[in-house]
Design brief:
Strand order of the largest sheet: 1-2-3
Shape: flat
Distance between the termini: 28 Å
Number of helices: 8
Largest sheet: 3 strands, antiparallel
Strand content: under 5%
Number of strands: 3
Length: about 270
């Protein structure tokens, strides 16, 4: 086994151990031990970063193949949620994120490694556009997970199942964090669109138009959610449903067409 395969194996095991340490104690009277799952999670993230450094950065270029970008997004999500968990309870979200990150690394291992997309590191506008886009996607995915958490806590509270939420954060805290994350993610998505439209040749070309339109529609939906929350008090199921639609559109925009082109039609 080469170094990349060894690192992938270690990353998967550490993510799974972190997730198991939360799941196994989620409804235990004492709850999950943060020191245990944060230790495993932090080690997984460190190893994941080493793995990315070996696959993405090649001499003076940045290899943003679909496999690398997908792995990078899962890293950003896992890293961000781990940071949140250091200060706030995230017992419902963090195991989902860790399991997804581990399963994704396994799945990516079965995809061909001969697909590369080298980008010159000196192309500042393009790198900024991609960076804002990926950051926006990661943050908005986390916001969608928070919308699930809000819905779950609200449901358990209404059914008076207090034991199910003993080790989860207060509903209003999660609700506030949800919209804060969505605001930051929406700003990043807007910035990505503006940079692309102003500084990147071919951003509105016919071959890229479907991706641009999907991203723009997703942006409008996120703006509508934020406006609806601020002006009309939108919460709960409506926010969750719209977030799922917008996140689905972003996923199709960022990954759908590339997967078809690079793996199904190649």
């Amino acid at each position: 086994m080469d170094v990349t395969n060894i690192l992938t194996f270690v990353v998967v095991i550490l993510y799974f151990l972190a997730a198991i340490s939360v799941f196994s104690k989620l409804f235990h009277p004492s709850g999950p031990n943060p020191k245990v799952y944060l230790t495993f999670g932090s080690l997984a993230i460190i190893c994941h970063s080493l793995l990315l450094s070996k696959t993405i950065f090649v001499q003076s270029t940045v290899d943003l193949s679909l496999v690398n970008v997908t792995s990078l997004v899962s890293f950003i999500i896992a890293f961000s949620v781990t940071l949140i968990a250091i200060r706030f309870k995230a017992n419902l979200i963090i195991p989902v994120v860790y399991v997804f990150a581990g399963l994704l690394q396994i799945t990516l291992g079965f995809l061909p490694e001969d697909k590369h997309l080298a980008i010159d590191a000196s192309a500042v506008s393009l790198i900024a556009h991609i960076s804002f886009a990926l950051l926006a996607y990661a943050i908005l995915v986390i916001a969608t997970l928070y919308a699930f958490q809000v819905q779950y806590i609200n449901y358990k509270l209404k059914s008076k199942n207090i034991a199910a939420v003993n080790h989860l954060p207060p509903l209003m805290q999660v609700d506030g964090q949800l919209f804060s994350l969505m605001l930051v993610g929406t700003i990043c998505l807007f910035s990505s669109q503006v940079i692309g439209a102003l500084f990147i040749d071919g951003f509105l070309a016919s071959e890229n138009l479907h991706k641009t339109l999907l991203s723009f529609v997703a942006l409008l939906i996120y703006v509508a959610i934020l406006w609806g929350h601020h002006s009309l008090g939108w919460r709960g199921y409506r926010v969750l449903s719209l977030s799922l639609i917008a996140t689905g559109l972003l996923t199709l925009s960022y990954f759908g067409s590339r997967f078809v082109k690079e793996f199904l039609l190649s």
